Amino acid sequence: MIAPYTESRKMMRALIVYESMFGNTAAVTEAVAAGLRPHVEVIMCPVAVAASKPAPQVDLLVVGAPTHAFGLSRAATRRDAADRTDAPVEIGVGVREWLDAALPLPAARFAAAFGTKIARPPWLPGSAAKGIGNRLRRLGYELVVPPADFYVDGMTGPLRTGELARATRWAAQLATTRSALPAN
Ligand SMILES: Cc1cc2nc3c(=O)[nH]c(=O)nc-3n(C[C@H](O)[C@H](O)[C@H](O)COP(=O)(O)O)c2cc1C
Questions:
Q1: 154 CA to middle of ligand 1, Å?
Q2: CATH number for 49
Q3: Domain count along the chain
Q4: How would you write the pLDDT of the chain (184 residues) with one tens digit per residue?
Q5: For tag attachment on the chain, is the N or C end more exposed, with fewer CB atoms within 10 Å?
Q6: Cα–chain-centroid distance for residue 47?
Q7: Which atom of ligand 1 is nearest to the CA of 26?
Q8: How much distance in Å is there from the Cα of 17 to the middle of ligand 1?
Q9: What ligand 1 atom has the least distance to the C-alpha of 156?
Q10: Is residue 1 one of the residues assigned to a domain?
Q11: Rounded CA gap, 160 and 26, in Å?
């Protein structure tokens, strides 16, 4: 159900908490923020920062992470990723640990999940997005749209052509779905 844009919706706030080792999920996060921004105020927060301070009050929580070993990363897979990049990688906490410890969460009732994973053969099962979605539901959130996977072409990326635009469209759909709006 798509609702028309209204000024009041612009007062809504969305928090995007994300994890990214090689920059692909971070780039998708930017694209998701671009899709949300015409409709809601957006706060982007790397998961290590989210884990270190109280979450702000928001209307919509969006969580994104890369798929590691068929699901959400663990310390061991983050160490593996750290060996493949010169960029600093947070080993201690990822989206899995943050969501496991995420009580109390921000007051949002509504949430959405996205992730990145390898597209080309050999296709691997499992999806960080689905794992996040399941955890958010267990925490009592209503998923506004189904979890979305965005695809990279190799172990460290890059993102497939068109995936950033698809992420922006997914986020715009998320922001304009009536159930994402507070009752008044
Ligand atoms: C340790 C490790 C395990 C991975 N396991 C999977 C997997 O099971 N399935 C998959 O599709 N991609 C897998 N990948 C690829 C990641 O999904 C890919 O690196 C990710 O999309 C990059 O996101 P980032 O740039 O935000 O870190 C794995 C990558 C690493 C480093």
A1: 8
A2: 3.40.50.360
A3: 1
A4: 334 334 444 569 999 999 999 999 999 999 999 999 999 999 999 999 999 988 888 999 999 999 999 999 999 999 999 999 999 999 999 999 999 987 656 667 899 999 999 997 767 889 999 999 999 999 989 999 999 999 999 999 999 999 999 999 999 999 998 655 554 3
A5: C
A6: 10
A7: 26
A8: 18
A9: 19
A10: no
A11: 14
